[in-house]
């Protein structure tokens, strides 16, 4: 019995050790990714740099990059660093020490302690769009909060355009769930970046429903036929649920659409599958009165352009 108990304790200890090591490895990986992201950013005029040399604490110093993109350091004088990553700038400083015969093989490290004050442009569906001054990187959630938060019709797929690269963009999904949203704090916005919050895609539910109008596709841009009708308050008792029309816009003009007839009753009973909608789709629930059955798709499209847009 003692042997079994001891074996169980050893197994538990080994399991705990494995979990701790796995967590440590995951933390190291996250730290490396964050460091790599910071290293990809280039130094600009006004940035505050922290320069250190391994085994030479007397050479540790801090300084700001001047308007010419140069930082002046003790012993070696001015070094041009603007436009370089911190890694490349450390290499330039290292070469200066070697060229001046001050050190043979210095290991130089440069960190950007404070970025120059620059505006982050926050555009689109936020309550206070415009420029926000930043001196240090902030999380995407912080920046959106500084812009007054998302509007009620904002798409939660937010794009960050990096200042130093026209091609580098980071897109992050800001979840409705607070616990999941807190994970977005790992996405940093740097001075000079641009944050773009688009409008959420809209589907329209028209005809004989409680609240006809347009509704944002909030759930990661997903919405089905039944969900859309439920969001609009459901079909009225006078509705002709067997002749619901799904109108999908394919282009401009009166003929730029396709139309499909659906039986809402069969969907509700599970006889036919519920369908995913696409942005700008229109669900038209006809009235039971015969005169409304003849309304054309182009007329329904025209009605959608003047529909009220609802939000939660």
Folded structure, characterized:
The chain has 312 residues and is an alpha+beta fold. It folds into three domains: 48-114, wza like domain (wza like fold, 2-Layer Sandwich); 118-197, Outer membrane lipoprotein wza domain like (Outer membrane lipoprotein wza fold like, Roll), CATH 3.10.560.10; 202-305, Roll (Outer membrane lipoprotein wza fold like). The chain contains seven helices and 17 strands. Strands 7-6-12-9-10 form a five-stranded mixed β-sheet, covered by helices on one side. Strands 14-13-17-15-16 form a five-stranded mixed β-sheet, with helices on both faces. It has a three-stranded antiparallel β-sheet with strand order 2-1-5, with helices on one face. The protein is rod-shaped and about 95 Å long. The termini are far apart. The model is unreliable at 1-39 (pLDDT under 50).
């Amino acid at each position: 019995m003692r042997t079994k108990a001891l074996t169980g304790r050893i197994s538990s200890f080994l399991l705990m050790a494995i979990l701790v090591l796995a967590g440590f490895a995951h933390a190291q990986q996250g730290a490396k990714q964050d460091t790599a992201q910071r290293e990809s950013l280039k130094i600009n005029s006004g940035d505050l740099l922290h320069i250190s040399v391994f085994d030479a604490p007397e050479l540790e110093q801090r300084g700001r990059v001047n308007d010419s993109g140069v930082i002046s350091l003790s012993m070696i004088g001015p070094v041009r660093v603007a436009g370089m990553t911190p890694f490349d700038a450390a290499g330039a400083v290292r070469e200066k020490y070697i060229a001046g015969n001050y050190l043979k093989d210095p290991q130089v490290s440069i960190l950007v302690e404070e970025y120059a004050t620059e505006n982050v442009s926050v555009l689109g569906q936020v309550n206070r769009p415009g420029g926000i001054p930043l001196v240090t990187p902030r999380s995407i959630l912080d920046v959106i909060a500084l812009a007054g938060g998302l509007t009620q019709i904002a798409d939660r797929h937010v794009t960050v355009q990096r200042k130093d690269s026209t091609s580098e963009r980071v897109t992050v999904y800001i979840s409705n769930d607070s616990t999941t949203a807190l994970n977005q704090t790992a996405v940093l916005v740097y001075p000079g970046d641009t944050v773009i919050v688009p409008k959420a895609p809209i589907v329209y539910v028209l005809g004989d429903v409680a609240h006809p109008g347009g509704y944002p596709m909030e759930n990661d841009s997903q919405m089905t036929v039944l969900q859309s009708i439920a969001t609009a308050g459901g079909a009225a008792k006078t509705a002709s649920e067997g002749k619901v029309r799904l109108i999908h816009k394919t282009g401009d003009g009166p003929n730029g659409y396709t139309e499909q007839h659906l039986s809402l009753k069969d969907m509700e009973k599970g006889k036919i599958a519920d369908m995913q909608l696409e942005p700008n789709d229109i669900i038209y629930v006809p009235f039971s009165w015969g005169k409304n059955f003849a309304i054309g798709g182009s007329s329904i499209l025209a009605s959608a352009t003047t529909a009220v847009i609802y939000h939660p």
